[in-house]
Design brief:
With 591 residues, the chain is an alpha+beta fold. It contains 24 helices and 17 strands. It has three domains: 2-173, Glutamine Phosphoribosylpyrophosphate, subunit 1, domain 1 (4-Layer Sandwich); 183-268 and 286-317 and 440-511, 3-Layer(aba) Sandwich (Rossmann fold), CATH 3.40.50; 321-432, no CATH class.
Length: 591
């Protein structure tokens, strides 16, 4: 399901009019559309919006006041479209799970909630420079600017409203990223918001399924779901190739949650059945895991679940970023800094002095300096260098550049040039830098979730991620990032908010499972197919990826040697995407 709009005659109509046909806002595909009108003001919410009827009825008055943020506080994940004669306003969500794209045409601005469909309508081709930037530095919005992977198709920055009218286009920022509140207040707001986000999704009735990995995130969602319905089936992935204590914690939690049905489900491997993977709107790093997502969805579909709830997004929102150590140093909280640095080093088996040195260096690094440093790293990346990226390399404001070693020299220079241009124009006060970066990481995950939702829908799954509702995201990001760290407690804000609601054993858990075994097993089994794909690479033809370097990385990993798995997986994902665009996969529904 997606929306399109613009000026009459600007794009082919198609779809179904949200209001009367004279207003060029149309919905394509099936999904929920709720509308309200008062006088000249109209409002539509599209997607999974659980606003009460009286709240929606009052929305036109909110539009008249141009209080865009208030329209994004209802539970659920949805778009808002507001209209009055001569002007249309389109709003996604705070985290970017509901993206909005726009472009200029000879008739005026046009927009869509699908970049692929907007590109098809406007004849836009692939933007190779943007692809390279998305591949190398997805956590740096300044390197991407407002561009998508299609030339001339712009992505609206989350937290911003798109305003079109009288042939023009403008943006209004409604999110205050620098705002913070006291920890206890944030915990209270998070608890209330998360309870509401889960309740509204399960009150509809029918069977509800939940992921239950045994971690705090999925256990929180499962525990809350059991409070509001007696028809919850928790599904734990069985992954014998990646042994961990996840299943043990999942069983312990399930035993404490009254009325919960607990089942183990099989899961596919990475890189299996990639030729059957559905197309996503933008390049999606998880696309090679299509078989994993499809396998996990199978049981929920067999149960005809009315909703499947996941803990997606919580790691990004609640885990302490490495730069939180730098913030503790900048704030002169030396005792806390020493305790956290020691805990960070101990957990990752690193020398404490390396952690201290790199964290202190970051505390004295401006964002512009961080962009310049990343630019140098990207431009000089060497595929032949065998040094693996270590934990101390996470102490940056910009994220790493792991995939840069697989790019061509010209593509690396292009990305480095973008980063240097951004360094000249970007000015972020040091006191706001950590908070802004926390929002940037949340929105990068939101972009990931937007594409993941396409895979889940293609697998027949009615998936929901309550942690990514606007009100929940704001509560999670309303504390300074350094308060997300505690040497003794996992995810302290979520832990505090869920005390008494989640089994105590999970709240106290300090370990975390992984899928390394499944990932490597899938790579080895599918190595011939992947090698053939990289030998006939579209990314190589377009001058983005060094095909020889990518194939050498594949051979190294398949042989069991240490390597850059994440970088190679990203290259394969982008290769899948560009082939899908060239072959017209995913064009259905754009008419």
């Amino acid at each position: 399901m997606h929306l399109t709009g613009g000026v009459p005659g600007g794009v082919e109509a198609g779809g179904v009019a949200v209001w009367e046909p004279s207003i060029p806002v149309r919905v394509h595909g099936s999904g929920s559309v709720r509308t309200a009108r008062k006088g000249a003001f109209r409002v539509a919410v599209v997607g999974d919006c659980y606003a009460k009827d009286e709240e929606l009825a009052n929305a036109p008055a909110t539009v008249a006041l141009e209080n865009w943020r208030a329209l994004t506080r209802w539970p659920g994940s949805y778009w808002v479209v507001a209209h009055r004669p001569g002007r249309t306003v389109v709003i996604g969500d705070a985290a970017g799970v509901r993206p909005v794209y726009w472009s200029r045409t000879g008739h005026g601005p046009v927009w869509s909630t699908s970049a692929r469909c907007l590109a098809r309508r406007t004849g836009a081709g692939i933007d190779d420079a943007a692809l390279a930037a998305l591949l190398v530095c997805p956590l740096v919005p300044e390197a991407i600017a407002d561009r998508s992977a299609f030339a001339g198709v712009n992505r609206l920055r989350p937290g911003t409203a798109l305003i079109t009218g009288h042939g023009g286009v403008s943006m209004a920022v409604y999110e205050n990223e620098a705002a913070v509140v006291e920890f206890d207040r944030a915990a209270d707001e998070l608890r209330e918001a998360l309870f509401e986000a889960v309740e509204v999704r399960v009150r509809a009735g029918g069977v509800v399924t939940c992921d239950l990995s045994g971690g705090l995130d999925s256990t929180t969602i499962t525990a809350l779901a059991t409070r509001f319905t007696g028809k919850v089936v928790a599904l734990t992935r069985d992954d014998p190739a990646s042994p961990s204590d996840d299943p043990d914690y999942a069983r312990r939690a399930a035993d404490e949650l009254e009325g919960l049905v607990h089942e183990s489900v099989g899961m596919g491997r990475f890189f299996d059945c990639m030729e059957t993977a559905p197309a996503t709107d933008q390049p999606f790093a998880d696309a090679p895991r299509w078989a994993v997502h499809r396998g996990a969805a199978r049981r929920s579909c067999e149960l005809a679940a009315t909703a499947h709830l996941t803990g997606s997004g919580a790691d990004t929102l609640f885990s302490p970023p490495a730069f939180s150590l730098a913030e503790l140093w900048r704030l002169r909280r030396r005792r806390d800094f020493a305790a956290h640095a020691s805990a960070f080093a101990r957990l990752r088996r690193l020398p404490v002095h390396d952690v201290v040195r790199t964290a202190v260096r970051l505390a004295h690094t401006s964002y512009a300096q961080g962009l310049l440093r990343l630019a140098d790293q990207v431009e000089t990346a060497d595929a032949g260098a065998r040094r693996r990226r270590g934990a101390v390399d996470r102490f940056t404001w910009t994220g790493g550049s792991g995939a840069a070693v697989l790019l061509t020299p010209s593509a690396r220079r292009e990305v480095a040039g973008r980063l240097r241009e951004a360094a000249e124009t970007t000015r972020v006060p040091q006191s706001e830098l950590a908070q802004r970066r926390a929002w940037a990481e949340a929105r990068e995950y939101g972009a990931y979730q937007a594409e993941l939702a396409m895979l889940q829908r293609a697998a027949g799954l009615s998936a929901h991620a309550p942690f990514l509702d606007g009100r929940v995201v704001r509560a999670a990001l309303s504390i300074p990032p350094h308060q997300r760290a505690d040497p003794e407690v996992q995810k302290p804000l979520l832990n505090s908010a869920m005390t008494g609601a989640v089994p105590e054993a999970v709240l106290r858990r300090t370990t975390k499972g992984a899928y390394d075994g499944t990932a490597l097993a899938g790579l080895r089994a599918n190595a011939p197919y992947l090698r053939a794909m990289l030998a006939d690479s579209r990314l190589q033809e377009n001058g983005i990826v060094d095909g020889a370097a990518a194939r050498a990385e594949l051979d190294r990993l398949a042989a069991g040697a240490p390597g850059r798995f994440a970088a190679l997986e990203a290259v394969i994902a982008f290769e899948m995407w560009i082939r899908g665009v060239e072959n017209g996969i995913g064009g259905a529904g754009c008419e």
